[in-house]
Design a protein that fits this description.
By secondary structure, the chain is mainly beta. It contains no helices and 11 strands.
Length: 119
């Protein structure tokens, strides 16, 4: 029902910035309810980072990224962005885009994009 394609990952030095993008392709019968980001570091469970709801545009962030990351959206393109500033080595992880649909109970996931923060 949904395909999610992430881009923008890479290697950055501590204190640097990256901008992740996730574009959703979905059948005409469905509409986006929310899109956002999770991440998973080696030997850790996948954790929530940020998400934004399409109706109303409300935003939530994990405490670990508040003040440093900003999530935004382009409704016309069904795309969500994650601006990542003041990156720390602890931000190193695979970042996964996810989406939920209006009237649909399941979650949809992208393939993930690697973010490495290292000097």
């Amino acid at each position: 029902q949904v395909q999610l394609v992430e881009s923008g990952g890479g290697l950055v030095q501590p204190g640097g910035s990256l901008r992740l993008s996730c574009a959703a392709s979905l059948s005409r019968r469905f509409s986006i309810y929310a899109m956002g980001w999770y991440r998973q570091a080696p030997n850790k469970e996948r954790e929530f980072v940020a998400h934004k709801r399409w109706p109303g545009g409300s935003t939530d962030y994990a405490d670990s990224v508040k003040g440093r990351f900003t999530i935004s959206r382009d409704n016309a393109k069904n795309t969500v962005y994650l601006q990542m500033n003041s990156l720390k080595p602890d931000d190193t992880a695979v970042y996964y885009c996810h989406a939920t649909l209006a009237g649909w109970s399941g979650d949809f996931w992208g393939q993930g994009t690697q973010v490495n923060v290292s000097s």
